Amino acid sequence: DADVTQTPRNRITKTGKRIMLECSQTKGHDRMYWYRQDPGLGLQLIYYSFDVKDINKGEISDGYSVSRQAQAKFSLSLESAIPNQTALYFCATSLLGGGTDTQYFGPGTRLTVL
Amino acid sequence: QKEVEQDPGPLSVPEGAIVSLNCTYSNSAFQYFMWYRQYSRKGPELLMYTYSSGNKEDGRFTAQVDKSSKYISLFIRDSQPSDSATYLCAMSAGDYKLSFGAGTTVTVRA
Questions:
Q1: Which residues of A fall within a CB distance of 8 Å from B32?
Q2: Which residues of chain A does B6 touch, with a Cβ-Cβ cutoff of 8 Å?
Q3: Taking CB atoms and an 8 Å limit, are A108 and B41 in contact across chains?
Q4: How far apart are CA A111 and CA B56, in angstroms?
Q5: How far is CA B103 from CA A50, A62, B5, B10, B38, in A?
Q6: Which pairs count as long-range contacts for A76-80, CB under 8 Å and 24+ apart, including other chains?
Q7: How do the pLDDT tens digits run along chain B, 110 residues long?
Q8: A interface residues, B as partner, C-beta within 8 Å
Q9: Of chain A's two ends, which shows fewer C-beta atoms within 10 Å, N or C?
Q10: Distance separating the N- and C-terminal Cα atoms of chain B
Q11: Residue B11 CB partners (closer than 8 Å, separation 6+)
Q12: At residue A45, does pLDDT exceed 80?
């Protein structure tokens, strides 16, 4: 059973289109994150949220926005997609006060912008 | 210079060999150290977690942290084809943020 789910799993879109990637979790964690992964660059943090009313920019937030609809749901939007946003996108969660800072990842969304 | 450096490989070993992976880092505030395993077309999954310096063993996996040298390692004994994956190191200063290495791709040949 998947604790962190992402939809869609694959998406092909065109330059200039607005798209939304969705993340849901059943782990009961407070914190949620969005990352992108590019070959050779590892994981880069886009946005993170500690609770529904707390949203923060990460390293590479330009061109992205997020919405925390509920404790269990965190969406990432690309306002006007461009080809260099082609990447793997991962949602992750962690537990506030867990003491370890470990994060748990969803299966990812492969996004292609033509 | 990246905060966390990890050789991307690729690394190819025969079944049964010991796999040795490592990362170096520059931020002396890091105190939580993790290894994630990522299979192709999957999300990273937590493999090992270590706090501060020292060793931790879990079955065929051993994680080592040397904070004085800012160097962490992961050893996989008796490697199996199912260990073929990308291994990412990650570390944290105890705040929200994980800093990741770029990942090392490992192939274990049957």
A1: 100-102
A2: 42
A3: yes
A4: 37
A5: 27, 24, 9, 10, 9
A6: A76/A20, A76/A21, A76/A22, A76/A23, A76/A34, A76/A46, A76/A47, A77/A18, A77/A19, A77/A20, A77/A21, A78/A18, A78/A19, A78/A20, A78/A21, A78/A111, A78/A113, A79/A18, A80/A16, A80/A17, A80/A18
A7: 789 999 888 999 999 999 999 999 999 999 999 999 999 888 999 999 888 888 999 999 999 999 999 999 999 999 999 999 999 999 988 877 889 999 999 999 99
A8: 4, 31, 40-43, 45, 48, 50, 90, 94, 100-108, 110
A9: N
A10: 37
A11: B19, B21, B104, B105, B106, B107
A12: yes
Contact flag A42-B95 (C-beta cutoff 8 Å): no
Instruction: Report the pLDDT averaged over residues A26-33.
Output: 92
Residue that has been written with the tokens 């931020």 in this structure: B27
Please tell me which residue of chain B has the smallest CA distance to A98: B94
pLDDT at A97: 63
The distance of B42 to chain A (nearest Cα, Å) reads: 5
Which residues of chain A neighbour B4 with C-beta distances below 8 Å?
A: 42
Nearest Cα of chain B lies from the Cα of A22 at a distance, in angstroms, of: 15
